[in-house]
Recover the amino acids of this structure.
């Protein structure tokens, strides 16, 4: 059975590319338009991994990670930030919130797949 | 004072000028902000449309690569390889069969020649019978004359002469029959020999030529097969390149989001400047510095977007080009196989029937040899019967001659001549018997040779026929395997050509419809021109930057390294001053951190 990965990003074109890449790799994808939407969907969908943008309306990536980690189903899943932000301070903030990894946009499909495979074991 | 007064006048003039220009700048800034707001939100649909097609193009490209792989795999596949190996082996077997058949034909021809030679040898003793007959008839006449001269004393000799005459006629008749049979047999054997030799020569040259031709075709197919095998790696490489192009598109598609953020930040900064100018918190130097910096940011964004769209278009076209190349390459491989295969199969179809006919012809020749040998045996048997008859006649004449000798002894001195005649008759009978012996000996030799040929040829006929039929049937089955492959290739080639042509057309149409970069460029050009005007006017009032503008506040908005680099560069710091991403202990790339 295919593993399920959620992608949260306010940019539809980025969600489309993440989704395209993951689906080519054989994963099932759940899309969320922002942190709030993601948390609502996480309450009903069991996902194996979360890939989230940092800057999003309603609830940003850090808020989403904190909210997700509070859910029992997401306590131990890998959460990777996929953002244009590259400052170390922000990365540390993400790490402290519970992020597993950090990818600076733009990503190469094979790179995203390599990260996904690595963190999903 | 004068100086201070001058400064005061200048400051007042500048303040008035700033106030006058600010309202124009505000209009410009609001226009730029509005334009930027429109383009940062309105370009997504076009990118999404491209993204939607990308998924479709990728899947269609993967389908074409899969088809190419399948086709090349089909030609280089195990069943084709083993069919060709079997065909190769079959050609060897057929070659050996033809050589063996030719040796058998040569052997049979030699035996037939030997029989002809033996039949020729029968001629001499047969002509001896003619001579015996002639002399016997003369002796019979002489006996009759002598018997008439002696009158009653040689009464029995007249009958004896008549008997000898009758017997000599019989010898003559039978010898004539034997001669006739022998000539018939020689003609029949000569005919069979010609048939055997003609058939053999025709069969061998024809079959060997076909086998040689087939072997050349097979070698061609083998070479194509080998090339197809090595092409699998090439196709994989092309597929990898296509994946890489798709990867480039995926990367460039994200530029939309990156550029959008960059434009949004410019938009926010300019709106803030407008507010600050209106509130008197910003002056000409601030306006010049900020607009100049935002010009750099916007120019960078425009360049990024243009580059990204160009990469998307080029990469998609490259996908179409590579798929066309792949199609041409595969057609070049499998197409040659198809073409060569087509020639090979149509040629082989004709050849196989000729080879089958020729090989079955050799069985027919064997059968006709068997019939001929049966006929030789029958005729030789008949001749032997006639020879036996002559031998019996000879014995009879010998007895008659013996009686004549006895009677001539009773006749006394007067019958001496009859005694001589009787003795001569007896000698001739012995000659006749000797001749029959010679003919019998030759006939025995013919029978032995015939039997040998008969045993060799007729015993194998059924086996050979079965062997030929087996070879033809196997050859037909092998060709069927190769023909099916050829048919599959032909269908796949035509499917792939159609799919590649359609993909290229669709990609060309899709890329021709990408105009987002032009729309954005137009808006940005207008914005840049507006900003440039503000900078020019602001620098008239404040020719030099006094460094009071709070650029750090602007920098806080940045989320991207490129924005910070432009910012630093604008402040005349080198980009190297910006910390780069921390070094990683993995090979996932410099933009990846795993915690």
């Amino acid at each position: 059975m295919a593993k399920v990965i959620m992608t949260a990003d306010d940019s539809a074109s980025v969600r489309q590319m993440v989704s395209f890449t993951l689906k080519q790799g054989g994963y099932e994808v759940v899309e969320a338009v922002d942190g709030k939407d993601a948390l609502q969907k996480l309450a009903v969908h069991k996902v194996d991994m979360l890939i989230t943008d940092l800057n999003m309306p309603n609830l940003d990536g850090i808020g989403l990670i904190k909210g997700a980690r509070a859910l029992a189903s997401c306590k131990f899943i890998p959460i990777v930030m996929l953002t244009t932000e590259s400052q170390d301070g922000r990365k540390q903030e993400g790490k402290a919130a519970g992020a597993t990894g950090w990818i600076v946009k733009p990503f190469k499909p094979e790179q995203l797949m390599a990260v996904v495979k690595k963190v999903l074991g | 004072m004068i100086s201070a007064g001058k400064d005061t006048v200048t400051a007042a003039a500048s303040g008035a000028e700033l106030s006058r220009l600010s309202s124009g700048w505000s209009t410009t800034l609001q226009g730029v902000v509005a334009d930027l707001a429109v383009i940062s939100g309105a370009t997504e649909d076009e990118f999404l449309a491209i993204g939607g097609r990308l998924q479709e193009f990728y899947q269609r490209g993967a389908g074409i690569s899969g088809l190419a792989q399948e086709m090349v795999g089909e030609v280089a596949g195990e069943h084709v390889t083993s069919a060709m190996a079997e065909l190769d082996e079959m050609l060897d077997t057929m070659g050996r069969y033809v050589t063996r058949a030719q040796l058998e034909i040569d052997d049979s021809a030699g035996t037939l020649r030997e029989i002809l030679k033996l039949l020729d040898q029968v001629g001499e003793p047969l002509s001896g019978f003619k001579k015996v007959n002639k002399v016997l008839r003369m002796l019979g006449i002489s006996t009759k004359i002598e018997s008439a001269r002696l009158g009653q004393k040689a009464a029995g000799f007249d009958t004896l002469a008549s008997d000898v005459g009758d017997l000599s006629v019989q010898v003559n008749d039978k010898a004539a029959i034997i001669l006739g049979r022998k000539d018939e047999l020689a003609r029949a054997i000569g005919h069979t020999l010609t048939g055997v030799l003609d058939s053999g020569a025709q069969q061998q040259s024809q079959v060997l030529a076909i086998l040689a031709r087939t072997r050349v075709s097979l070698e061609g197919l083998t070479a194509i097969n080998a090339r197809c095998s090595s092409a699998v790696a090439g196709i994989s490489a092309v597929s990898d390149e296509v994946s890489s192009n798709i990867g480039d598109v995926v990367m460039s598609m994200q530029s939309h989001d990156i550029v959008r953020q960059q434009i949004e930040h410019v938009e926010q900064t300019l709106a803030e400047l407008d507010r600050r100018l209106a509130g008197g918190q910003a002056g000409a130097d601030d306006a010049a510095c900020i607009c100049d910096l935002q010009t750099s940011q916007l120019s960078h964004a425009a360049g990024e977007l243009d580059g990204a769209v160009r990469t998307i278009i080029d990469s998609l076209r490259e996908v179409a080009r590579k798929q066309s190349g792949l199609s041409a390459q595969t057609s070049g491989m499998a197409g040659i196989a198809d073409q060569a295969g087509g020639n090979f199969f149509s040629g082989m179809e004709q050849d196989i029937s000729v080879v089958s006919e020729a090989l079955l012809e050799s069985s027919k020749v064997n059968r006709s040899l068997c019939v001929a040998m049966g006929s030789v045996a029958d005729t030789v048997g008949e001749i032997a019967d006639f020879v036996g008859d002559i031998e019996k006649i000879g014995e009879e004449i010998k007895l008659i001659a013996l009686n004549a000798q006895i009677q001539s002894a009773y006749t006394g001195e007067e019958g001496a001549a009859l005694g001589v005649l009787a003795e001569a008759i007896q000698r001739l009978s012995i000659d006749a018997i000797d001749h029959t012996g010679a003919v019998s000996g030759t006939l025995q030799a013919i029978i032995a040779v015939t039997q040998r040929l008969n045993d060799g040829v007729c015993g194998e006929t059924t086996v050979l026929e079965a062997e030929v039929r087996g070879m033809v049937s196997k050859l037909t089955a092998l060709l069927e395997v190769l023909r099916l492959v050829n048919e599959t290739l032909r269908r796949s080639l035509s499917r792939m050509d159609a799919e590649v042509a359609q993909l290229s057309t669709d990609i060309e149409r899709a890329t021709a419809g990408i105009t987002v970069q032009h729309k954005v460029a137009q808006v940005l050009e207008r914005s840049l021109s507006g900003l440039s005007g503000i900078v020019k006017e602001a620098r008239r009032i404040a020719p030099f930057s006094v460094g009071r503008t709070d650029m750090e506040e602007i920098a806080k908005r940045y989320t991207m390294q490129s924005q910070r680099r432009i910012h630093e560069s604008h402040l005349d710091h080198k980009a190297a001053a910006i910390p780069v991403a921390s070094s990683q202990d993995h090979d996932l790339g410099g933009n990846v951190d795993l915690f």
